[in-house]
Amino acid sequence: MIRSAKPIENKTWVNWDGEIQISPNAIFEPSKLEDLIDIVKLAKANNKTIRCAAQGHTESSLSVTEHYLIIVTNLNQITVQKHPKYGWTVTAEAGTSLSELDKALRNYDPPLTLDSETLPDILRVAGVIAVGAHGAKTSSGIMSDQLYSMKIVTGSGEVYEFSEEISKSEFNAAKVNLGLLGIIYSLTFRVQPMYNLRMTDIYVPINEWLNPKNIKNLLESSDGIELSYQPFNGFNQNDPNPLDPNRDLLWVKNWVRTDESVSFTQQQIEQLHETQNQNAINQYELLSSLLQNPEATPNITASLFSGNGNTSSVFQAPDAIHFFIAEYKIKLYFMEIGFKIDPDFSNVVTEFSHAIQTLYEFARKGKFPINYVIAIRIVKSTEALLSTTFNNDPKTLYCYINFATVIGTPYWEEFTQLLAQRYFDKYKAKPHWAKKWEFIPNVKTYLSEVLSDQIKKFEKVRAKYDPSKIFFDNKSLQDIFSHALGS
């Protein structure tokens, strides 16, 4: 019997971009731990399966189910604790947004912060952990690597705690679990005293700046870097050769920890965010017009490019990490692939340059698959088994290359499929679980092979905590696991 988490009758769930719409048997919006336990027991009694959703920002099918869908956003309690080893930890229930978590830590005495987070602050903690999401700070790895422990309601309806101290092998399965171990109830993160970051933005000619030495030197002197390419930003319709990549600039961003004072008051930052929101909406509306007029892409994207001034300012860590605040209504396709970086960083340059060259090859054929951004971030490896960046060597670095365009942009799938296949063939690269990847030809067979060893280790943990497969309700994951396990 459900004590208070009543199912929502006749309701359809839609993810953030509107591309996924489902009407499962029941949707629940629990508000406390007991609700989660009761829902699992109800599912067992009625022979139903369960999937979960948080902010709905995941673009792949991970939350799709015909049976029970649990929306965890009402689970948002936060508790800060003194810790004998780590100084401080914070426990957040599954549906806590990163903005709520930032606010609670910033207002604590003393002010605290996470070491790194994802760029969007609207995401919920269970969602970013379940899929192995990451920020831009290299040494922080994925957000899951800041976990101290986590509590999951498993297939028996019991609550189990996972941590490195209890069992490192099981913790490495739980840290990126894709919802396969149960319902994440709470997450406890290691946190640290609030600190400041100097965030610097420069715009440089791609053909002059983009080389392995520059990237390596910048990374070694920074806490994190991001390289962004805004398509056709050097386009000049009055030039005899308007589509000339040699005129394009690269947006280079880096963060450096500093003891300097912040450059803006919180009120000024809030005003900055309001301006960013409005500008982002205006740009999105203009880019959306390209769906009916794609040949105008170079002219429009060049007109929107703001690479006319370098800046450097100091922010508190959360403000620097969430440097761009955009309205939820901006809907983009994302595909992100992670691959192991060569020691000399040469393959980072090779693949970034190749992606831009390929974009121009498409453009010369009248195809404009990217109108938003191609961006690169670099993070260290993790021992989380199902992470895109799994590696037992902690010194290994991975390059995430992300392709973003307005939803519905023609030829986006053709373009990203081509590049994804290249990364698969050359580097045994893996896609970000939360973004689009299921459209890539033969990707499930490929992932079952490249993740075979990790899946076999993960499956031992999964079978222990959900032997009845209550949470194994996802066709893509079923296909990947069954092939990897030979079942």
Topology:
Layout: E1 7-8, E2 13-14, E3 21-22, E4 26-28, H1 33-45, E5 50-53, E6 68-71, E7 78-83, E8 87-93, H2 98-106, E9 112-113, H3 125-130, E10 147-153, E11 159-163, H4 168-174, E12 183-193, E13 196-205, H5 206-209, H6 212-220, E14 224-229, E15 249-258, H7 266-288, H8 297-304, E16 311-316, H9 317-321, E17 332-340, H10 346-364, E18 373-380, E19 397-406, H11 412-427, E20 430-431, H12 443-450, H13 452-465, H14 475-485
Parallel strand pairs: 4-6, 5-6
Antiparallel strand pairs: 1-4, 2-3, 7-8, 8-12, 9-12, 10-11, 10-12, 13-15, 13-16, 14-15, 14-18, 17-19, 17-20, 18-19
Helix pairs in contact: 12-14
Overview of the structural elements:
There is one protein chain. The model has no long low-confidence stretch (mean pLDDT 95). Helix content is 31%, strand content 24%. The strands form four sheets. It has an eight-stranded antiparallel sheet with strand order 16-13-15-14-18-19-17-20. Strands 7, 8, 9, 10, 11 and 12 form a six-stranded antiparallel sheet that branches. It has a four-stranded mixed sheet with strand order 1-4-6-5, covered by helices on one side. Helix 12 (443-450) packs across helix 14. The longest helix has 23 residues, at 266-288. A hairpin with a 6-residue loop joins strand 2 (13-14) and strand 3 (21-22). The chain has two domains: 1-194, Uridine Diphospho-n-acetylenolpyruvylglucosamine Reductase, domain 3 (2-Layer Sandwich), CATH 3.30.465.10; 196-438, Vanillyl-alcohol Oxidase, Chain A, domain 3 (3-Layer(aba) Sandwich), CATH 3.40.462. It is α+β, with helices and mostly antiparallel strands.
